Amino acid sequence: MASTESTKTITLPVLGMSCAACASSVESMVAAQKGVEQAEVNYASQKLKVVYHPELIQPEVMQKAVQGVGYDLIIDTDHADEKQAEIKANSYKALKNRVLAAAILTIPVVIFGMFLMDVPYANYLMLLFSAPVVFYFGKGFFINAFKQARYGKSNMDTLVALSTGIAFIFSIFNTFYPEFWHQRGLHPHVYYETAAVVIVFIMLGKLLEERAKSNTSSAIKKLIGLQPKTVIRISGDTETEVPIAEVQAGDQLLVKSGEKIPVDGKVYEGSSFVDESMISGEPVAVAKKPGDAVFAGTINQKGSFRFVAEKVGGATLLAQIIQLVQDAQGSKAPVQKLVDKVAGIFVPVVLFIAILTLGIWLLFGGTHALTQGLLAMVTVLVIACPCALGLATPTAIMVGIGKGAEHGILIKDAEALELGHRVNAIVLDKTGTITEGKPKVTTLNWDAQLPTDQLVMAQIFAALEQQSEHPLADAIYQYFKEKGLSPLPVEAFESLTGMGVTASYKGEQYWAGSHKILKGQSISADLQSAAKALQEQAQTVIYFANTRQVLAVVAIADQLKEGSAAAVAALKYRGIEVYMLTGDNAQTAEAVSKAVGIDHYKAEVLPSDKAAFVRALQASGKVVAMIGDGINDSEALAQADVSIAMGKGSDIAIDVAKMTLISSDLRQVPKALRLSKLTVKTIRQNLFWAFIYNLIGIPLAAGILYPFNGFLLNPMIAGAAMALSSVSVVSNSLRLKFSKLN
Prior knowledge:
alpha+beta
């Protein structure tokens, strides 16, 4: 074996996979190639990760191996994701058109087969309508089944191809040679409608699955979109706009007001406020001055500055978030994997039973051994049709998703419904999830001994904050604006970095800002006591003063959402452990967690810390749900077993999450978990009904009762039983619509 030092790792998109068994086929074919150390297929992300020795094998060889079993790889790594997205979009559109066309042709076949079978030339009309459905719109099942069979493999396509193909060929024989059965005292039934309906239903199931997976890459696209395409590079006195791909560590860059920061670096000239909510989740922009670090994808709000690039390309924090989100998303498997695995075992078992049935009839069947043996074999294959099996999961998921939408819970992924009922640990973001996510004035205390009219002082205070660039200033200005106060015209306005602002009105100087702004001004005992009490509640205190005294103190805080405490109580009542993670300081985190009844919390955490915390809980055996609203939560959302986003949060968080609460009300979370429990229960019931028909029907179809009472199941009745199993599954799924989530 070659040294591991010579290995190379690549990730290639896979095309054509429709089930977990397909992923297994691709994985095993690539792993079997000489020079491949490791091959791993993520069915959810439709990607193959390969560790290989370049001197022994190249991606082109892997591609040919995969093509041999009916799939394909995109080996152009420069534009692989774009090509995969384009091919998937075109494939979904084509599948949708095929399902529609096949359904239109199948309707008259069903009408003739069920109600007008004695009409002249009915069999020929059914043949005419069903042939395109089976062999044109359903040709993919036969092609894939053949390619699987060449390598001794089978999947859902194998069973579909066998059951529909044999039913169709058997029907053609009975259409053109009915006298074969008439001479033996039997009626030549045809099963065109069975073959056509099976093809349409299975195609519909695949369409529903593709629809559920169609948006998995949109979050990555939006994260990538956070990085600007070009940047202004400084060389001496020259400013040049260059593509971001050309930026190297050590370059001096300029960021203007309102622009996105292109790479990670350190400020060396200028100052501004930067929105870093994608990293910290906190709504208040962060002041930046020379020596401070800045990060790619964050937004420069006011002012411009120059900085030195330190990390570029894949080394930036944004790039790492993108990669981690991709990895976490790709590591998940859909609920359908159980059905696909069962189908992989079910197919050879059914084939064995069908062949065994014919063999036993030939040995012990007597006079009509061949005739009855053939009928029994066909009946086994028809009644074992996987139609109900294929519908068991998607129909329940479809109804469950609709039920969730009625209650303001948008569900994008079947896995969320599969795992939700098993959640025993929930991690909550603070800002925008437990709290409103927008700073507001909670308290305004004036000095009892104001030197002049309080209204005039309020108008001066409003004027100072109106002109200030600090994010908290807007909260104070909006507070006064809502009370109908107009700012007075102040003069000589000046912003004092790190402290606050100052201006004069009618010759007197006024200040507004943190405690650092106070220069010997006296503060009354009442205001001092009020300020201390507010700070102990983790609220930010702003002082308003003139040259002699502090005139007022204002408290600003991110207020709790109305239903947060009730939601936490409901989750704890269900025995679920609740954790809170926030980028805010420890004092604020403690105050918020205490207010809503959360026992476990962590403060000052970065996005990677949140994801690591989720992984640690999972490693301890917990099934973890993550609830957040910001870009900074996306990595942890992707990592969690169940991810829930606030509807009023960032687009990226919503895209990454598998569930979204439209109202952003945490009280919807217990309802979502209840819906999961009901949906999984329905899926299990559906699988029971799908299998019970086979467990009872296959032995009857094989003729197990014939030696005792002469009973032999008619293939037509077998077709009806197959249809009834599908009806049972769909009907049971529809019951979910009437369930209560409270």
